[in-house]
Amino acid sequence: MIGVRWGAATDTGKVRSRNEDAFLAEPPLFVVADGMGGHQDGAVASRIAVDTLRGLLDQPTVTPSEVPRLIQAANDAIRGQARVDPTRPGMGTTVVGMVLVTPKGRRPFWLAFNIGDSRLYQVHRDALSQISVDHSYVQELVLAGVIAPDEARFHPERAVITRALGSHEEAEADFWVFPATAGTRLLLCSDGLSGELDDAAITAALAAEPDPVLAAGLLVSRANEAGGRDNITVVVVDVCHQPSTGAQNADADSTDADSTDAVR
Ligand code: CA
Question: Residue 55: pLDDT above 70?
Fold first, then answer.
């Protein structure tokens, strides 16, 4: 049997006044969304994304074709919300996530998806690799060979993303499928983490805490120590041969309804 141990944490950071990130950690589904837009719009958009994707859990087993359908439904809902008040355009959100699919008689696998610059990383045998590909201006510069990957984190236009949920009529997500292998650790995060910590710092924090709940808290602390210039959200998922367990913690000013400490 394949299960997961998970931990999640979100924090407003040290500069922003509100937390506009949202996350969902309910096995087999894990999602991080980073909202954007004026007023409270970012928080509204990221919440719509997470709540719509939660629909995947309505069925006893996950149907992979439901994932793109729900991503499009979230896109439509965000655009519908933005139309309610046309003086507040620009509402949108990134979304990165993964769902564990366990087909009968076949090996379980992850179906991962991404729009924007929130990230999915995998740690296998102590090596960190980014599975998702950022939809960002700096990522395009890296791919074109204009700047080195190390320069992207410090580029003045690093926050410019090229795709977001809600920005166009069609939601353009990328998808990845990879085996769910016991012993691997997965990390979903908003750019409040990856913008503050480079790969080496993320790897070190993940290696320092075998417990995914403590690892999530440590990553948020380290991002705050590095500046905490943006909202920080992390979900750490360990694939194991045990029934699923996990816990989440969130700062008190989060609007997340699940933000009180909870252990399940
Ligand atoms: Ca952000």
Answer: yes
